[in-house]
Design goal:
59% helix
């Protein structure tokens, strides 16, 4: 089919831990976050993936994951609309640049 797949994870470098403030804030900007359930989201026993707090194997295997998990466990998470907009705009710009780059290579 000639299909070329490009993985763009640049945003991961600046966003922070999985399901942390960055991802949550981007979701809020997109309108897919129920802020009334934020306290529930921080119940790490029920949601170990939040900030990777409860994923011990991943934390042991990767210092960066552990650092992020420690921060989320200590500070929690919040919705930051300004951060969410910046992250979302950065992600969209990166995707557009990937598409432009692919189009120019043909």
């Amino acid at each position: 089919m000639g299909l070329k797949v490009v993985f763009n994870n640049k945003i991961v470098e600046i966003e922070g831990p999985h399901a942390g403030t960055g991802e949550l804030s981007m979701g809020a900007v997109m309108g897919i976050v129920d802020e009334s359930r934020l306290d529930e989201h921080c119940e790490f026993d029920n949601y170990p993936e939040v900030g990777m707090v409860g994923l011990q194997e991943a934390r042991k295997a990767n210092k960066g994951i552990n650092t992020g998990a420690c921060k989320v466990k200590e500070e929690g998470i919040c919705v930051d609309i300004k951060l969410g907009r910046v992250l979302l705009e950065t992600a969209l710009e990166d995707i557009l640049n990937n598409v432009k780059s692919l189009l120019n290579k043909e």
